Amino acid sequence: MKNKEIAEIFRQVAQLLEIKGDNPYRIRAYEKAAQTIEALGVDVEELAKKGRLTSVPGIGADLANKIQEILRTGTLSLLEDLKKEIPPALLTFLQIPSLGPRKVKAIYDKFGITTLEELEKLCLEHKVARLSGFGFKTEENILKGIKLLKEKRGRRPLGEVLPYAEEIVELIKSKAPLENIASAGSIRRRKETVKDIDVLITSNQPEKVMSFVANLPQVEEVIAFGETKTSVRLKIGIQMDVRVVPQNSWGAALAYFTGSKAHNIRVRELALEKGLKINEYGVYRGEEWIAGRTEEEVYGALGLPWIPPELREDQGEIEAALEGRLPRLVEYHEVIGDAHVHSKYSDGASSLEEIMNYAEKLGLSWVAICDHSQGLKVAGGVPVEDLFKKKRHIEELNQKSKKVKLIFGAEVDINSDGTLDYPDEVLKEIDFVIAAIHTGFQQDEKQITERIISALKHPLVHAIAHPTGRLINEREPYAVELKEVFEAAKNYGKALEVNAYYKRLDLPYIYVRTARDMGIKLIIGTDAHIVDQMTYLSLGTAVARRGWCEKEDLLNTLSYEEFMAWLKKVRNA
DNA sequence: GCCGTTTTCGGCCCGACTGTTTTCAGTCG
């Protein structure tokens, strides 16, 4: 039973309890537990075996028992009982914007329906509007919501939304009367997927700013319009929430709208303990405003150092801040190498020259050219004879270039039986070997784990590319026991990739943190197949930062000479 | 349901906007 499945059970319990109208704090406890477990980075099962479940914040004696029950029986009797009381199909209704637990319950109590089609029909017949607390507007909103839900727009990959958000922020900045503007929310925390775009603004002409926003050409529909808060749905099918606050509240509002919600709740609880109150306008002692101009001021008022947005998930960062042991996160500009770029030698679209020029433009010092290996025919795997042509080509270019060095690498397939896709006498000529699984995804956990471990064990391999194989929103990770992979990587002194391609971000950040805690080196590669994609490097750095990585944890912060030395050291170990 | 250097009971983050009401509940972030 994986963490994700246990989290899902608790999440369903929370939602059913919500519809039932149960104690809101009990509901929050289940939600919080679901969130914590999902982001744990170690198997709950491991903790359970050691009897350490209650050491997880938010897991008390009762939830620990419930986890044990789930691990033992595969299900939770509480959930089964709730399902008998409230049809789980109703949970779909909760996904309709404007419908919350109270309204869902009212509809169910009156009509006993459980499908979107039935609900749609009732709205069209204007039967819903007759319920107390409902009206024709609500009916309209439900119909609109059902339509949106059927379009199935969920969370989008960060790499897809971020450039769009930056563009829209620039546009508002250049045309509306304002002092400060920034995107906040999950975009600022660089979470791997985002649900909406949050924009924070300071201005003394909020009404002008808001009407500018509401009339942007990108806007499809205005959902809510106020002087301090306006929400619109953009034509690309994503919601944008814009908040305008006074200049003095910039820091407080930025902290508040950056979240995460769990982080904010902890910070506010901390404030209460100190007799302070925090809202988006500032920090208050009684009626008196005492801080809020900058984030540093807000955290400072609580006796905390500033916490980088990427860490604000209530996953131990507040405790670390209190104890003065926040990591000194790797800075974006400290990442000076891209460890995984494809060229025309395999399925990439760019030549070595183009890659070198683009790297210089990005301010990089080195790029490892890791084309696919011979067996991966669909991706133009490089036959052995071309490999040495490529090697000479790289050497020529390196002689001419002072600023950027290319590294002769290969992304070598791990065959189904765990062997590698080039013979050893070829591998030893390749300066950087990153091994990867591209076939046999359907193998079971034992087989895949053993495949990866045998690659890690191979003396000529330096690292494993995209260790879980997941594609965000598209493909689940293959069955792999990461704990064993991590142990092997540690034992053999090998690195694990943080693949920065926007659909991969693999290792996912929660495992980056586990690997980093174990002392395993991480290496960012963009997996670029065309030079533009090398800009994804910053997404990889974001993942590393979310995984608490410091400069020393990332091989990409090494100079070309240092990295080459590391490559040699691995093979001599 | 969790939690505790005031506490093992009694707290638990805070505010904006909408749509329904006629002073506020529900939803959302």
Sequence-ordered SSE layout with sheet pairings:
Layout: H1 3-20, H2 24-38, H3 44-50, H4 61-73, H5 77-85, H6 91-94, H7 101-111, H8 116-124, H9 136-150, E1 156-157, H10 158-175, E2 180-183, H11 185-188, E3 193-194, E4 196-202, H12 206-214, E5 219-225, E6 229-234, E7 239-245, H13 250-258, H14 261-273, E8 277-279, E9 282-285, E10 288-291, H15 295-301, H16 317-322, E11 337-341, H17 352-361, E12 366-372, H18 384-400, E13 405-413, H19 424-427, E14 432-436, H20 445-457, E15 463-464, H21 482-492, E16 495-499, H22 509-517, E17 522-525, H23 537-546, H24 560-572
Parallel strand pairs: 4-7, 11-12, 12-13, 13-14, 14-15, 15-16, 16-17
Antiparallel strand pairs: 1-3, 2-4, 5-6, 6-7, 8-9, 9-10
Helix pairs in contact: 1-2, 1-5, 1-7, 8-9, 13-15, 20-21, 22-23
The structure holds one DNA strand of 29 nucleotides.
Provide a descriptive summary of the structure in words.
The chain is α/β, with parallel strands linked by helices and 573 residues long. The chain has 24 helices and 17 strands. It has a seven-stranded parallel β-sheet. Strands 2-4-7-6-5 form a five-stranded mixed β-sheet, with helices on both faces. Strand 16, helix 22 (509-517) and strand 17 (522-525) form a beta-alpha-beta unit. Helix 1 (3-20) crosses helix 7 and helix 8 runs antiparallel to helix 9. The protein starts with a helix and ends with a helix. The relative contact order is 0.07. The model has no long low-confidence stretch (mean pLDDT 93). The protein binds one DNA strand of 29 nucleotides through residues 23-30, 32-33, 57-63, 97-103, 132-135, 137-138, 141, 185, 196, 198, 223-226, 228-231, 241, 243, 256-257, 259, 261, 264-269, 271-272, 277-281.
